[in-house]
Write a structure and sequence with these properties.
Oxidized Rhodanese, domain 1; five-stranded parallel beta sheet
């Protein structure tokens, strides 16, 4: 089943009773943009807004954007009107930058009927579909938590992969961050040893940006030296764009795809963990 939905198809089914739409637009503080405000100004009719760093995160955790427990997620999604049996479409305003995270979060909580709007809000508007302003809500629903621990990896599990192998590590940060050329908010620069760099932006093409077709994605990963037949673990700065990479890999039919939720925010801040700088070896 495809992890993507086309704008025309969503527009044709927007009034379906079993459909829920989530605006997942989110930005780093330094970018000076506010996803919740942009949603209030204009969004896909009927969409509700969820913030990955507050609504869906364990805000008591030391690591940025640490995903909340499946039980807590089920409560949040239920309050937002996302329940069992519903089809969910998630979008953002950057081709999947943050929508991928909410797609993954729903699946981690155990809800499978979720897809991402290919091309996001920018493509929706560019193709002439309707928009609406204001804050919307849905009737409360019940989402039964069905945790999928195979979709997430811990620091210790990734350290075991570094030492013993058994999976491919894919880092979705920019090449400059991967190589250690940019200042980070944690103590180290660089990347997890043995990981390959497939930047999140490179998963997208076009204007408005949308996910590359399958052949383009396969070429992208082949050029990075990633063996798609092996188990795959995606990482990034704080677990956000790693989820877009996970979506792309799932779209390619890869069966064992998980996300290192702590990512570089956790790994790069630990004195005792190994790291490398420069291009992937």
């Amino acid at each position: 089943m495809s992890q993507l939905v086309e704008p025309d198809r969503l527009a044709a089914r927007l009034d379906d009773a079993d459909l829920a739409v989530i605006d997942a637009s989110w930005y780093l503080p330094a970018e000076g943009r506010d996803g919740r405000r942009e949603y209030a100004e204009s969004h896909i009719p009927g969409a509700v807004y969820l913030d990955l760093s507050t609504d869906l995160a364990d805000t008591a955790a030391r690591v940025r954007n640490r995903v909340a427990s499946p039980e807590a997620l089920a409560e949040v999604f239920g309050r937002a009107g996302i329940g069992d049996g519903q089809r969910v479409v998630v979008y953002d305003r950057r081709g999947g930058y943050s929508a991928g995270r909410v797609w993954w979060t729903l699946r981690y909580a155990g809800h499978e009927r979720v897809a991402m709007l290919d091309g996001g809000y920018e493509r929706w508007v560019a193709e002439g579909h309707p928009t609406r302003a204001g804050i919307e809500s849905r009737s409360r629903a019940r989402l039964t938590p069905r945790p999928r621990p195979e979709l997430i990896r811990s620091r210790d599990e990734v350290l075991r992969i570094v030492r013993e192998g058994g999976a491919e590590l894919v880092d979705a940060r920019s090449g400059a961050r991967f190589e250690g050329l940019e200042v980070e908010s944690v103590r180290h620069r660089g990347h997890i040893p043995g990981s390959r760099n497939v930047a999140w932006r490179d998963h997208l093409e076009g204007d408005p940006p949308r996910l590359r077709p399958a052949e383009g994605l396969r070429s992208l990963y082949a050029e990075a030296g990633v063996d798609l037949s092996r188990p795959l673990v995606t990482t990034c700065g704080s677990g956000v764009t790693a989820c877009l990479a996970a979506l792309a890999l799932t779209e390619l039919g890869c069966r064992e795809v998980s996300v290192y939720d702590g990512s570089w925010s956790e790994w790069g801040d630990a004195e005792e963990l190994p790291f490398e700088t420069g291009p992937a070896r």
